[in-house]
Every structure is written in C-alpha cells, then in structure tokens.
Amino acid sequence: MEQLFGDNKLGELEEKIDVLLGAYKDMRQEKAGSESRIASLEAENRELKEQVARVETEKGLVMQKVKGILEKIQKIEA
C-alpha cells in the first residue's frame, strides 16, 4: 500500500485518469459531430434519390412522346 502512495504514484494515476477522461470527452464530441453529419448526408441522399426518381419518370414520359412523334413522322413518310 505504501508503494501506491509513495513516489507520487497516486498523483500520476490521477493525471492518467484526467487524460483518459479528456480523450473520452473528445471522442464523445467527435461521435456527436459524426452522427450529425451522417444524419445530414442521409437526408441529402434521400432527396437525391427522390430527384433521380422524378427525372427517371420525366425521362420516360419524354421518350414516349418522342416515340409518338417518330411514329407520326414515319406514317407521313409512308
């Protein structure tokens, strides 16, 4: 027990614990920031997927209209 209190071992242990607690606090803050960024990116990803789906739908409609126009042109030429 004397070794624990001797040579300032208890003080060194306290310093190490303080360093660990500081690192833990930093990691928690970093985790919170990462979670926030992930949530933001997921929301942006959902928006982009919705936009892509809308564009695909519009593309299909345009293609149908173009095919209809081409068919009319072919009928006129025939």
What does this structure look like?
The protein is rod-shaped. It has 78 residues and is mainly α. Helices cover 94% and strands 0% of the residues.
Class computed from helices, strands and strand pairing: mainly alpha
Counting DSSP E segments of at least 2 residues, the number of strands comes to 0
Q: In terms of per-residue confidence, which ranges show pLDDT below 50 for 5 or more consecutive residues?
A: none
Shape: rod-shaped
Number of discrete helical segments: 2
Strand content: under 5%
What is the terminal-to-terminal distance? 106 Å
Largest sheet: none
Q: Helices and strands, in N-to-C order?
A: HH
**Residue-averaged pLDDT, rounded?**
92
Radius of gyration: 33 Å
Q: Which percent bin holds the helix content?
A: over 70%
Keywords:
78 residues, 0% strand, 2 helices, mainly alpha, rod-shaped, 94% helix
Draw up the topology in text.
Layout: H1 2-5, H2 9-77
Short description:
This protein is mostly helical.
